[in-house]
Amino acid sequence: MKKILVVAEHRKGEIRPVTFEMLNLSSSIPGETTCVILGKDIGGMAEEISKKADRVIMVQHDSLENFNSELYWVALEEIIKEENPDIIALGHTAMGMELAPFISERIDAPLATDIVKIEEVNGKIHVHKYVFSNKILAELELRDSDTYVITIRQGEFKEEIDDKNGEIEERSFTPPGSISKRFIEYVEPEEVGVDISKADIIVSVGRGIEDEGNIELAEELAEALNGVVAGSRPVIDSGWLPKERQVGISGKTVKPKLYLALGISGAFQHIVGMKDSELIIAINRDPEAPIFQVAHYGVVGDIFDVVPELIERLKKG
Amino acid sequence: MNIIVCVKETPLAESEVIISKDEKSVDRDALTLGINEWDKYALEEAIRIKEEHGGSVTVIYAGQSEDVLWESLAMGADEAVRIDTETSFDGRSTARVLADVIKNRDHDLILTGLMSSDTGNAQVGVLIASILGIPYATIVTDVRVENGKVVVERELEGGTGERLELEMPCLLTIQSGINEPRYVSIMGIKRAKRKEIEVLSADKLDEYASLVRLYRPPVSLAEMIEGSPSDVAEKLVEIFKERGLI
Ligand SMILES: Cc1cc2nc3c(=O)[nH]c(=O)nc-3n(C[C@H](O)[C@H](O)[C@H](O)COP(=O)(O)OP(=O)(O)OC[C@H]3O[C@@H](n4cnc5c(N)ncnc54)[C@H](O)[C@@H]3O)c2cc1C
Ligand SMILES: Nc1ncnc2c1ncn2[C@@H]1O[C@H](COP(=O)(O)O)[C@@H](O)[C@H]1O
After folding, report:
1. Are A180 and B167 an interchain contact pair (Cβ–Cβ within 8 Å)?
2. CATH code matching the domain that covers B2-201, chosen among 3.40.50.2300, 3.30.70.980, 1.10.3210.10, 3.40.50.620
3. Could you tell me the distance, in angstroms and rounded to a whole number, from the CA of residue B113 to the centre of ligand 2?
4. Where in chain A is the domain with CATH 3.40.50.1220?
5. Size of interface A-B (CB pairs under 8 A)
6. pLDDT tens, A33-53?
7. Tens of pLDDT along A50-69?
8. Quick count: other Cβ atoms within 10 Å of Cβ B152?
9. For residue B129, what are the CA distances in angstroms to A18, A102, B1, B165?
10. For the whole prediction, is pTM greater than 0.90?
11. ipTM, 2 decimals?
């Protein structure tokens, strides 16, 4: 039995779903899960988590209201020392990316991030993760250690465990006298223009569209289909489409009747935002593009050959 | 303001990835290599900060090739250092090699990319900061330097962000889209080759995570539509009609 210490993730009063996925880790690595939740006014969330954890450790303090890796570490250091867990798990999220490597360095533990699978092989911990732009997977063996630090990819540890009813223990917290990193405020996106999350048909373009001038081609297709144009992050980063048109983890989540992916490779951060679309069709000239793993129909081809033909045919009716 | 930027050579997303027979490496000749996407944004940001506040930009790469360093010099870095070693998927040993070099150099600010596209780790930046014991922030989409402090915006999920203030020296891992990296011409790279690259050696370190094998994901589920562009268009229209989409 391994001791798994899960660091709960929540923002603005809501538990983030990745927390429950981490609690499912005990179905991959038989073990006892202790979930640590840090924050302010978190009693309700701790209750909810306790249904799926063997134990919950709750630390409440005004200074912990918003995530801050420096303060989180001060609170976690003692808990980690006392608990001496085999595995410390965080999400591969804005929170986990900021905190997990720091913990691993402080306690000198092997670190594996963005993992999609974990297993014990001949007494060693093995993890699996996507590498080379999500095209292939790597299996890594972690060096023997008292503790391992991992971050998990969202949506990969869905196999639910039975309900538990863990005890909630409360610990105290004294913030340090001075800190070198301070939270100022949240920055919310401006809601302007088209809301792509409401569209039934989305023509989505990726870096394969090559140039701002070619967006017109996608617009023409969207018009013929009575849909809207959206894009992957590089298209938005380049300023070819406004930010509110971005699909993915740091953009919008969409579930249209048709999602047409043109020149999009299919990075996990993109897939998260569109995988529940009713019909996904991908056109990509790379037969290995990971987008074909989630698409219902795939076309290996050049968008500049296929799309004009498609527009013409649609116009003919 | 002395700024250090860690840059790395990685394959483009489109590169064909061929796994070797022993399942331990990929065929390098099949890859199209360049500056890691996130590192290009980090370098551009460093150059802009230097242009505003003065100082210098030093790029550091732990690896075998010098191309990304020439390109960085052409973009506007002042100095380039190559650590002659091979790095792996183990971010902890990579970070140690880089931190060993960085700690002996003047730095007010260290920038890295958020992640490298080959490891997909998003580890090395935070690890360097942890080794050096300096504050840091990840997934940074805006940087302002004011009165010896740095105010940054970090990207969270779903379009939300947060603003943080950090003491200097600090380390930031830069997210794509923070700026528009300047274009470098072949001539620019040629001119940059008149500069020198400092080459340092590094001891081989024990790994915390070692590669067992590389393998392909389960076969694709998509039904593939084949034929000429016009055949494909015809079949797609049929599918749209069947589903009542048009
Ligand atoms: C914290 C974080 C958050 C992120 N958030 C998001 C997000 O919200 N949304 C998002 O999309 N990404 C996000 N990303 C980025 C993500 O990791 C990928 O880099 C991005 O999705 C890749 O976009 P792409 O597929 O358009 O480009 P690429 O990966 O470069 O792929 C381009 C594709 O186009 C194909 N292609 C090129 N030319 C043609 C042609 N003529 N015809 C047909 N096909 C062609 C290529 O074969 C390739 O597959 C995030 C990354 C991080 C680290
Ligand atoms: N070998 C290397 N040389 C220089 N910088 C590196 C190296 N490996 C990683 N980095 C930096 O660390 C960032 C994160 O890398 P990773 O942890 O591999 O995802 C990259 O964007 C680079 O800025």
Report:
1. yes
2. 3.40.50.620
3. 7
4. 196-316
5. 270
6. 999 999 999 999 999 999 999
7. 999 999 999 999 999 999 99
8. 26
9. 26, 8, 18, 16
10. yes
11. 0.95
